């Protein structure tokens, strides 16, 4: 156990800090998803050139080309947070498609898509879930019929965030209808401008349309756009889901929320009494602090294990379940602490934090459900982590 | 940056667990609990591994390791519900002597503790958990008068470390005249807890220092580690049982209702391991974080421990609540750990005080 960083890393930290200090004037406004602003794209370019974005992506594909070093990645994220500097572009193209292409894409696909995606020139959306294929994603019914060198795609996707501004989609399509369920799917890339695609915003309980429905009617896509081979889509997609689950349970997000709640409880008063002076609220705050600290140290443990290749048993499998739940509980507590003010929303007078806590409380419920529901996570923990038997399959009538 | 156990720690953990697997099966626990006495043979096996001298420097016959090492031992002891003295005798008392003992006090007591020749009881409950039923000890001219409750590692202790009402620490030879020892019988018969009454009892003061806080923090961390070990054992027992027990022509472990209970236990308890590791590491290496992380380790494991204890019992169905299976030894151990040195609410209040969120 040694929580200090070695000289090499301390030097890296100092360099990172100096870089951010020097370029403070160029910090773009926070990026809210969708299409990045010109300032954001310029920032992204600067970050890639200096190794603070696309760090481990080979330079031949437009990345910085450094060896993977999980501690350096962590230092970058810590220093950016400390300087309140916007990180490089995120989004499903960069966090999910690019790693997938690097793993299983053809040379041509890598050359064509990775660099412009990293630069923020191509925005992607993910076409996985369907109305009838949620937790049982492999039962998806969007079909691609072979027609010469093309597929003709028909069907519907749902929960497609950023579809309204995306240039391209990476999409799971059933192309081999005669094959068994997991073997009949292909992972296909195509333009969202292709004729026959309709995007309908899906308004959620937050009042915003964070997702979309996407309809395909006779959408013609070249067969060359398949990644990883026809019928291999399920296995290709699983490589990406791994990346998503790691992303969804970020313990630093929980710590940021906890600190905001501490500030709130020191500043807000009810009947002239600080919220922090209410012992019931304070006890709930301390309970949440225990959990936030536990998950933070758990994160450090996983970080070390990722760097050393140590086996941590089921420790990694619990992050999505526990992390999403904790964030949700933090939002719930902030609402409770605010009392009646906690219900204000939209553009109401007396609104606190721009309605963040209610919005987060509602939106995070979606995160508990999405990316593998809490119940699916528990199956995974029980079956892969604890070695418990799978549910026997029902006999088909 | 490395948040992990090192090779030596992994080896020690394995060897303590292997030894306890051998010498401390359920039958042995049951026999000791029936008498509410420590198991001398189990203890001897741990003495052979050098466990009593874990935190005591080499010059006094110990091995001079760190609190994280002690936490790993405490976890293994909890895992086996081993009826042995440890937390007070070999963690808290040595820390008091090391931080606040005079050279004479150290050379008098530390070698006897390091060799496992004697055990030591610790009486600081009034300072940490709060004074009840008129408890409290007054010191006057080197004599103690009053009573101390929830004394840890009570049975057969030759030395007591006692906190008085002014939060000063004293060493008391158990053979001094004027002491009345009365056992307190808790739910957990694998450990001995008691009450001391003093009537003008000779005591040697320890120096003014942070020793009481260090004992409290270390005690919290050890109790949390004990629950971590006991809790994981209860999860493993539940999983094992669920793969064996059949109902409706299926092993019950294939029902999602049962699987999800097991997954919830694991998902809640496992982050507690990192919290215990961090708190134990901070105790020696990051003093500014030590008390707060110790408090969080104690209260988190107290809460999650209770959830695991009742849920594992539930997964076992009716047989889980019988004496036959012996699962209750773990259930009760976790229950005792939760309350000793302050229940979760009290410890969380202290955590708030430490951060300036509440007045003491």
Structural description of this entry:
The complex is a heterodimer of chains A (397) and B (360). With 397 residues, chain A is an alpha+beta fold. Chain A folds into three domains: 7-89, no CATH class; 124-232, Butyryl-CoA Dehydrogenase, subunit A, domain 2, CATH 2.40.110; 249-385, Butyryl-CoA Dehydrogenase, subunit A, domain 3, CATH 1.20.140. In chain A, 45% of the residues lie in helices and 14% in strands. Chain A has helices at 7-22, 38-50, 70-82, 91-104, 107-119, 233-248, 251-267, 279-308, 319-338, 356-369, 374-385; strands at 124-127, 143-147, 150-158, 168-174, 185-191, 197-202, 211-222, 226-227, 269-270, 273-274. In chain A, helix 4 packs across helix 6 (233-248) and helix 6 (233-248) crosses helix 9 (319-338). The radius of gyration of chain A is 23 Å and the shape is globular. The N and C termini of chain A lie far apart (57 Å). Chain B has 360 residues and is α+β, with helices and mostly antiparallel strands. Chain B folds into three domains: 7-114, Butyryl-Coa Dehydrogenase, subunit A, domain 1, CATH 1.10.540; 120-205, Beta Barrel (Butyryl-CoA Dehydrogenase, subunit A, domain 2); 211-354, Up-down Bundle (Butyryl-CoA Dehydrogenase, subunit A, domain 3). In chain B, 54% of the residues lie in helices and 14% in strands. Chain B has helices at residues 7-23, 26-35, 40-48, 67-79, 87-100, 103-114, 125-128, 211-244, 256-285, 287-315, 328-339, 344-354; strands at residues 120-123, 136-140, 143-152, 159-163, 169-173, 179-184, 193-202, 204-205, 246-247, 250-251. In chain B, the strands form three sheets. Chain B has a four-stranded mixed sheet. In chain B, helix 1 packs antiparallel against helix 3 and helix 4 runs antiparallel to helix 9 (256-285). The longest helix of chain B has 34 residues, at 211-244. Chain B is globular and about 75 Å long. The interface between A and B is large, with 53 and 49 residues.
